[in-house]
Structure formats: C-alpha cells, structure tokens
Amino acid sequence: MTHHSVPYLEPQRPMRHRVIVALTMLDGRLVRTRRFRNPTYVGDPINAVKIFSDKGADEIVLLEIGSSPYDAARESAIRDIASEAMMPISYGGGVRSIEQVRSVIRCGFEKVVINSALHGDLGLATRAAAEFGSQAIVGSIEVGCGWLRGRHVRTCCGTRAARTTLPDWARRCEQAGCGELLVTSIASDGLMSGYDLTALRDASQAVTVPIIALGGAGRVEHFSEAIAAGASAVAAGSMFVFHGPRRAVLINYPEQPRDQVGGP
Questions:
Q1: pLDDT at 205
Q2: CATH class of 18-260
Q3: pLDDT (tens digit per residue) in 53-72
Q4: Beta bridge partners of 155
Q5: Integer Cα distance of 187 and 148 in angstroms
Q6: What's the pLDDT at 15?
Q7: Percentage, residues of the chain above pLDDT 70
Q8: Closest residue by Cα to residue 239 from 197, 196, 202, 188
Q9: pLDDT band, very low/low/confident/very high, at 11 (cuts 50, 70, 90)
Q10: How far apart are CA 129 and CA 134, in angstroms?
C-alpha cells in the first residue's frame, strides 16, 4: 500500500483591518470639527504624532483643512511632523500639482491624499501614480447627504457640490490611478454616532481598490459595521482625542480596536 503524505497547513488567521488615526489641522494647529464646522483646538500635531507612535497606532492620516496654499512653510511644518511618526503616515491638504506630490513624499510621507485638485484635473492622480505607484495615491471623497440629492460628492472641505454621483466618482478616481479611496461622511463627522454605511456600500461596490471609512466612529463596534459595509480600513479622529460626554481632550489609542477589528 502506498502512503501519501499530507502537507501540514497552518490554520489561517482572520484578516486584521487597519485602524487609522485621522488628524485634522488648521493653520498648523490640531483641531476637531463637527460636520466640517466649528473647529475646536485640541493640541499640537507633533506631540499627538509622538503619542500615537508610542501607543503603536497602525497608521496616521494628516489632513490640513484650511484654505491656505501648500507652500514652503507648510512643507517645513509637515516634515517635522512626519519625522516623529514610527508608522506609515499620509498627508493631504492643498496638494494640487505633481511638484507638491513630490514635496510631500520627500518630507517622509508614504502616501499623498488628494481631493479638490482631482475635480479639476484627474490626470494629477495618473501622473502621480506613474511616478510613485498607485499605492502612494489616495483619492479623498467628501460625501454629503441631503433630502433631495441623497448621498452626493462635495469638495473644498464640503463647501461645493460636485456634479457626479458617489459610485461614478469613485470609479473615475480608481481608473485615474488612485490606489485607495478615503470616503468621509460630512453629516457624521465628529458626532461619534457611527459611519455612513450607505455611502460605504455605494463606494465599495463601485470599485476594487480599498475603501477607508472616515467620519462618525465613536465605538469599536462602529469599526466592525464599516468593515461589513465594504470598507477595507477604518479611520477615526474624535474617538482618539476626546474622552467622556464632555469631550475632554485625552489622546488615546487602546489595544481593543486592533484586537477586535478582524475579517469575516
């Protein structure tokens, strides 16, 4: 009788999804907003990045929400912030040219987040992806929610409506070269009451690239809901900088999110 050996297969571990810290800045100061309004000062971004590095955060995305242009002063400031990151870090805010994409990468960021500029020149994503790889280019999509229009795409920090649907714009960003899409719900921003799951489903069903959910996380359970709705990663801001019903500033990144946000 011939005996056939059976190869040993290690049991598969469930996929662990990334839990990303979203830090928003206004003129170099760390702030948090509610529905993209009323920015509240919460600290210094360099100190925050140091703390999140010490706590072992998976990844950080740093977003400048002001209207000031990306310039030499901005480059110097974000280089200092990136130097404190011991994990992958992305930057977005006012990036409108391939030269500025290069500048962000030179400053030590792994990824560049682009939003408003793509509405005028989707080719920017194509050129940037050709030079740095699509994994380095994140298309940021701001999602509004209204009685008449339903979920729709907005731009310029939510101040302008874009003439495109969420699924169509997500597809166009993917085709242009974006390797990930950051889908932010304006209506849920800062409320800590849960993500816009409808928007996440609409976006994830339209593309094959990873979707990052942002806007509304307040509990670990919200992360799992976003993953079930199609997100590949979850991002949170207020959840990691506020504590308690009075929203006292307390930067935190507990072990629980990393342990509980797994695959199906």
A1: 97
A2: alpha beta
A3: 999 999 999 999 987 888 88
A4: 160
A5: 15
A6: 55
A7: 89
A8: 188
A9: very low
A10: 4
pLDDT tier for residue 262 given thresholds of 50, 70 and 90 = low
Rg for the chain, CA atoms, rounded: 19
Mean of the pLDDT values across residues 120-147?
Answer: 95
Q: Where are the domains of the chain?
A: 18-260
Q: Which residues contact 201 (CB under 8 A, 6 or more apart)?
A: 229, 230
